[in-house]
Amino acid sequence: MTLDQTQFRPASAHPAHSTVADTMDAAEPQVWEDMTVEVALSVMAAARTGHLVVCDEDGMCTGLVTRDRLTAVRDGSGYTDRIRLRDVADVIGPFASPLATRAEAERAMRCRRLGAPPVVDGHGNALGVVALSR
After folding, report:
1. Which of 19, 26, 83, 117 is most exposed, with minimal Cβ within 10 Å?
2. Residue at 47 is within a domain
């Protein structure tokens, strides 16, 4: 083997040492927490996504909703068109740090039975969504 064929992998390339930032999906689309369930389902369909990051009026991440959750709410007997995303968010803090290891995120997701928690910076801004299937 010649020197130019040698490939070096960074320490973070090993799944056990990679960070959440290395494995997250972009936090798009982001929606406001006062959006209705019907509008959120329409946004999901248009964006072809299964989840939405929910933010407050200051743009801080407050949660995440999934298509399954919104469909269950809409199809439930207590549904009204006044139900807002803030009332039905699937994941409500604490959120993942981009510096957390992938192993830490997997443990937290199993313990809390989370599907895909948002990743936020130190100011509460959504950076992405944990995507551990990579």
Report:
1. 26
2. yes
Dihedral angle computed from the Cα positions of residues 8, 12, 15 and 19, in that order, rounded to the nearest 10 degrees: -160
Looking at the domain assignment, is residue 20 inside a domain? Answer: no
Mean pLDDT of 28-46: 92
For the ranges 18-22, 30-34, 56-60, 101-105, the maximum mean pLDDT occurs at: 30-34
Number of domains in the chain: 1
Q: Which two tokens stand for residue 2?
A: 């010649």
Q: Specify the higher pLDDT residue, 8 or 59.
A: 59
Q: Is residue 98 reached through a cis peptide bond, with omega within 30 degrees of 0 on the bond before it? A: no
pLDDT one-digit tens code per residue, 61-99:
888 888 989 999 999 999 999 999 999 987 666 677 777
- Residues 23, 11: Cα–Cα separation, whole Å: 14
The enclosing domain of 37 has a CATH number of 3.10.580.10
Residue 3 lies in a domain: no
Residue 10 falls within a domain, yes or no? no
Q: Which residues make Cβ contacts (< 8 Å) with residue 127, sequence separation at least 6?
A: 21, 24, 27, 98, 119, 120, 121
Peptide bond into 10 cis (omega under 30): no
